[in-house]
Amino acid sequence: MTITRDYYEVLSVERTADGGEVKRAYRRLAMKYHPDRNPGDPEAERLFKEAAEAYEVLSSPDRRRLYDQYGHEGLRSRPGHDFRSMHVEDIFSMFEDILGGFGGRTGRGRPQQRRGYDLETEVTVSMMEVLTGTECDVEIDRQDVCDTCGGSGARPGTTPETCTTCNGNGQVQQAGLGGMFRMVSACPTCRGRGTVVAERCDDCRGHGRATAHRSLLVRIPAGIGDGQAIRVTGEGEPPSPEVSPDGSGTPGDLHVVIRVQSDERFERDGDNLIVVEPVAFTQLAIGATVTIDTLDGRHELEIPAGTQTNELFRIAAAGLPNLRSGKRGDMVVIVRLVVPRKLTERQRALLGEYAETEDTPVNETSGSFWEKFKDVVTGGRSQDDKEQ
């Protein structure tokens, strides 16, 4: 085990991160340190392999449990892949479903399917935009086929030359274990293309790809949740120049991760919204009508006489729409007693008179607050707010 850095630190995730967060973190690092984006950069390749090893451990429940208990020492009895000694193209093939079909070649030098790289970006929306749905302008920078050289990497008027290392085959053979077998891998000189560029294109410096700015309008459906992603087909990058110099083939996709801004008025629980409404003792004792802020405007809520603090009320269809069905959730209102910190002399005198009339202790209501809360949110029996 060659990596000594903490795996959670490598992927920049918390120890409580679920499988989806671990996967997204690995995808982000894999795309950032992809060797085609960092040609000739050994540090980028090292970080790519480091991320792959961290993902292999944290994506496996058993290996992650061992690592959480015993650290790197706990994994020595169950070693995984030695990513440090593996070719990066072999790592692509191992995690092809995670990386979204990265272009390149397999460890044996055969071309993979011509599919480009997936990209990922984030947009932030408000709770009101979750209610109605919206459209967002998304701007990204991606690697596109160089317009000057058409993806060849050669200066206009020149052509790439046959690679002398592999004689144009794009792959080389290496003997292993004293000649008992031979390994075929992509040529390290031409990276599997079979040609090398003698005179490089000035715009892309021989890479065949240049950074292009892209702006597009993405529709955000109503009911979207924080952390969910929208896939925009074909808005990723073209296949790598090693697989398809001119960019022909299937481009990758763009994954737009949605971040929902918190609203200080509400707490979201799935399709339901939760609000805490402060009330006075008199409002609970003799009943009152309070005004509740909802996403649709203000709602009048009737509080019956004798209501207890932390009692729950439901305002039907005042929550957020379900992403699939469009049916709106409810707003759950928690009425909470607020005791004044200061009293006027008259208030103190009146409360003193009231206290003299009390001759029975106050009993707690049956059932815990959280049991009642669960019943209301999950559709159990609840206090009717005289739905309007």
Textual characterization of the structure:
The protein is α+β, with helices and mostly antiparallel strands. It folds into 3 domains: 102 residues, Orthogonal Bundle (Helix Hairpins); 113 residues, HSP40/DNAj peptide-binding domain, CATH 2.60.260.20; 118 residues, HSP40/DNAj peptide-binding domain, CATH 2.60.260. The chain has 11 helices and 16 strands. Helix 2 packs antiparallel against helix 3. The longest helix is centred in the first third of the chain and has 17 residues. The protein starts with 6 loop residues before the first helix and ends with a strand. The relative contact order is 0.10. The C terminus is likely disordered.
Q: How much of the residues is beta strand, in percent? A: 25-35%
**End-to-end CA span:** 64 Å
CATH superfamily of the largest domain: Urease metallochaperone UreE, N-terminal domain
CATH-derived architecture of the largest domain: Sandwich
Q: Could you please say which CATH topology of the largest domain applies here?
A: HSP40/DNAj peptide-binding domain
Mean pLDDT: 84
Quick synopsis:
Helix content is about 25%, strand content about 25%. By secondary structure, it is of the alpha+beta class. It folds into 3 domains: about 100 residues, Orthogonal Bundle (Helix Hairpins), CATH 1.10.287.110; about 110 residues, HSP40/DNAj peptide-binding domain (Sandwich); about 120 residues, HSP40/DNAj peptide-binding domain, CATH 2.60.260.20.
